[in-house]
Amino acid sequence: MHIGIIGTGNMGTILTEAIIDSQAAPQEHIHITNRTIEKALQIKANYPNIHVEETVEEVVSNSEMIFICVKPMDIYPLLIKTSHLLKKDKCTISITSPFSVEQLESIVQCSCMRVIPSITNRALSGVCLVTYGTNCSDHWKQKVNSFLSYIGNPIEIEQQYTRVASDIVSCGPAFFSFLTQKFIDAAVKETGINKDLATQLAQEMLVGMGTLIKKGHYSLPTLQEKVCVKGGVTGKGIEVLDNSQIEDTFRTVFNVTQRKFAEDQKMINNQFNFFGK
Question: pTM of the entire structure?
């Protein structure tokens, strides 16, 4: 099976590299392109056997499973341009949240789905969020699910939870790396610990915590219980965090991302209305 990847920005590149490194598909079965072709050629420098195509039409023609990794407002014109090539035996996959599978299906005749990857997939870990189109064949559901299992854990989600699930899975690494950096900065300012050492310790702590959870030793609540001795140092720190309104901060984060999501959806809907879809 040949895989097409249209758009080699951050996520398109991560997806390409994860697919190859996981051996989900051999290099020679991967066809990529980008508006700025030099970005695609940078990937080829590391994976010389992949195919860099000059046009999106060439990617679609040479591939059965096509990942669309472009900005939300660029998807509609791209699909209109290539709809005659996206025949019933192919599968079109969008990785952007505001463009719904129903909108994909209104333009092309092939099986459609949305797959929202995460930067964690680069380590062949984490989650891939999957939403299937109404007309997506069982053949492609099984095939894509098996394919994604090489780079992460595919989890099916309903349309209504697209944004919040994406916030947790896809945006989450950025949110928690930001919090970790603030955690490190505070340690340096308050105690004078060397920043490189504090960073190393924090990174190792995150890896260790993730391993504990992955291996099923502890859940998030039991982690707190095991570390937090009543009246001890950790307990005092938890009291500060519990009184810091941090939950309200995260609720504000989700509120803002939901609003941005709605704005993006409105712009995409306007495209469909403008072109009579």
Answer: 0.90
